[in-house]
Amino acid sequence: MSRAEEFQELRPLLFSIAYRILGSVSEAEDAVQETWLRFVAAPTEIRSAKAFLSAAVTRISIDVLRSARARREEYVGPWLPEPLLADPYQDPERSAELADSLSMAALVLLERLSPLERAVFVLREVFDFGFPEVASAVGRSEAACRQLAVRARRHMAAGRPRFQADRKERQELASRFFDALREGDVAGLQNLLAADVSMVGDGGGKAPQLARAVIGAQNVAQLLASVFPRMALIGVTGEPHEVNGQPGAIFRDRDGKVLHALALDVLDGQIQTIRVVINPDKLGHVGAVADAWAIDREVRQARRPTQ
Description:
Layout: H1 3-22, H2 25-41, H3 49-73, H4 95-102, H5 104-110, H6 115-126, H7 131-138, H8 142-159, H9 167-183, H10 186-192, E1 193-202, E2 214-215, H11 217-233, E3 237-240, E4 248-252, E5 258-267, E6 270-277, H12 292-301
Parallel strand pairs: 1-6
Antiparallel strand pairs: 1-2, 3-4, 4-5, 5-6
């Protein structure tokens, strides 16, 4: 097998590692491309393509994350990961770990870890790499990696979400949610939301966004019921779609351009968190991006028909 063939076979794994470390589709793709350049330029025979490539993409991702963290500290408003509509890497034996680690809730928690802790956690807990492989990838001793893994697990366990496992039930609840959303049904929405539900938006200062998280079923239901029907009046449509492995939707303007991605956390038959990514810099990989400011002006001027 040629190096190009080996790389293409492992590319889904490499992207999935990089995305979980970085929380960014564009940065993960860049890390994978840089990994290919290092692979093809390696002068000596490589005993294990998987070991070489996974170590390379991990080191590149750690370096990128270190520089990104400074930018994220100055980020305007809440930071959310770039939405991922489909994970290219599948492993039936690790399906639960892969799905759990892909959620926006888990990726936000991973932001609390140091770059090394995050990389060790992803390799060890998500992809089940042995500690010798992890140590080689991050350039630390096995003993140090074990300590990093313990700290990372402790941090993650403190706030780790536990989502409803039954996929069909989650999708049915999401379907009812979007029906109520289209109808502007405050009571219907409120019945689907946990009492302490939170709604958070990520505009990054480059699109209209919530000034702060909205908390509480009544507050969130009233906000949703007041905004989304008006959006429908000006041609905005929602396309149900899994977002980071959770129920969600992609919203588009009348021309089919992407306005925002919305993801739902579901637990115990209720929606616990609603996350909306509207920063245009985080949506380009989904499709052509809409002018969110123009749509916001239209929405403010739109008037719902009297009931």
